[in-house]
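An example makes the point: we print one protein in full, the chain in one-letter code, the fold tokenised, without further comment:
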Amino acid sequence: MRTRKAQRLVLVVGALGLLGAATGLVLASLGQNVAFFSSPTAILTGETKPGTRLRLGGIVLEGTVVHQDVQVRFAITDYAHDIPVLYTGILPDLFREGQGVVAIGQVDADGIFQADEILARHDEGYMPPEVSQALKDAEHWLPEL
């Protein structure tokens, strides 16, 4: 028969084990949903690996939007480099050429960004912070945007 001290020790060790398992499950779940921000320049210079889930930000390049039913092809630029994007779905109402955009997805082996979500800026004075920083880094910041 166990002493009271031994029973408390078993209870504490069991509780710590359950807490550790729960923490591990939460961290594993969050790790699958993390998407780091990247610019076209960072992708094309090899700073990000193909197949990595990320958020690509920049400006929708003028003259590149092509609609094919619910599939849309366009290019995102940071004015230093462009990357082609393929998206299947309904675009946000504010999606336009020359506007800031963030696409969430991954680059395939052919160098095409396969987006599964598109976020467009919501008013004339807003640009996602990551997009404005990428444009500043490319020395093509347009403060009037």
About this structure: The chain has a mean pLDDT of 81. The longest strand covers residues 53-60. The chain is about 30% helix and 30% strand. The radius of gyration is 22 Å.
